[in-house]
Amino acid sequence: MSADLAHLPVALSRIGRVTGDPVVVLPGGPCRDPAYLGDLAGLGDTCPIVVLHPRGVPGSTDVSRGWWADADDVIAVIDALGLEHAQVVAHSAGTRLALAAATRFPGRIRSMALITPPATWITGTPHDGDSIPLDRTNPAVAAAIHALQEDDPATESEFTAAFLRQTPATYAHWSPVEQAHATIGSVSLAATSAWFTGIPADAVEQVRAARIPPTLVIGGDRDYLTGVQPVRDYAAALGAEVAFIRDCGHYPWVEQPAEFRSVMRSWLSSADVL
After folding, report:
1. Model confidence over 254-271: pLDDT tens digits?
2. Which of 7-21, 37-51, 228-242, 258-272 ranks highest by mean pLDDT?
């Protein structure tokens, strides 16, 4: 590495022990403790992975300056790793950070894989989550859908409770595997609120006018949070490839790990990363 990582404004962690130029991973949440990423279905066994811990999570400094400004941190990490440009993998809210970095710093992002991105902010396509076939007869799932539509937490404790109440609707199924995963990775109202501050009024126009690097958008065909058509339109607006993982919600490496691993390895290999 070409710089002292201790001087970075964000913490980093590694997944896997293979050598080579690392892939930079941007977690979602926003500002959720990256522990929820696990080992990304073993992806670190085939390429080195460095996870950026955004401002506002334990181990990183202060709170977010807004995802647009925090793109500076992505570039600082790429510089510290001694890379001219980097492959970026981002999940959920982290996809905004990836797009900000690609837009503000042309040429520094080699290619991107954007996993279950929030999409309507780019295209305005109406959310179609209500048409997704979740098990609405499950009381936990039905309550979660209601909570996603109605909750408006005002305190940290209310925010955490709302997050946990909403999680059953964020997976295609609410089995013990998903239930265990939902408890991993703390969230913060203060960090989340800060994430959305200071965003330029023309951020969407800047992103859509930018020369976006080769990009793969990965969706879940049962992702209530993102919907399906919004993700298709988002990929089209970015000129990106799109792949939907079947019987999958917002966390494909947890819900369909083998398919997720296959899609990711194929993409990274085509981008000459592996």
Report:
1. 999 999 999 999 999 886
2. 228-242
Phi, psi (deg, nearest 5) at residue 58:
-55, 130
Residue with tokens 């696990």: 38
Domain covering 5-133+195-270: architecture: 3-Layer(aba) Sandwich (3.40)
Distance between CA atoms of residues 87 and 22, nearest Å: 8
The letter for the amino acid at 110 is R
Q: Is the pLDDT of residue 274 over 60?
A: no
Give me Rg for the CA atoms of the chain.
Answer: 17
Contact 247, 221 (CB under 8 A): yes
The burial class, CB within 10 Å (0-12 / 13-18 / 19+), for 59 is exposed
SS3 138: coil
What secondary structure does DSSP assign to 112-137, as a single string? Answer: EEEES---HHHH-PPP-GGGS---TT
**For helices 94-104 and 71-80, angle between their N-to-C axes, nearest 10 degrees:** 70
Query: pLDDT tens digits for 185-240?
Result: 999 999 999 999 999 999 999 999 999 999 999 999 999 999 999 999 999 999 99
Copy the structure tokens of residue 205. 């126009």
198 DSSP assignment: S
Q: At what angle do helices 156-166 and 139-150 cross, to 10 degrees?
A: 130
Length of the chain: 274
Domain boundaries, the chain: 5-133+195-270
- Are the C-beta atoms of residues 216 and 240 closer than 8 Å to each other? yes
List the structure tokens of 90. Answer: 């981002």
Structure tokens at 221: 């065909």
Closest alpha carbon to 76 in 26, 9, 15, 14 = 9
258: tokens are: 């083998």
In this prediction the pTM is 0.95
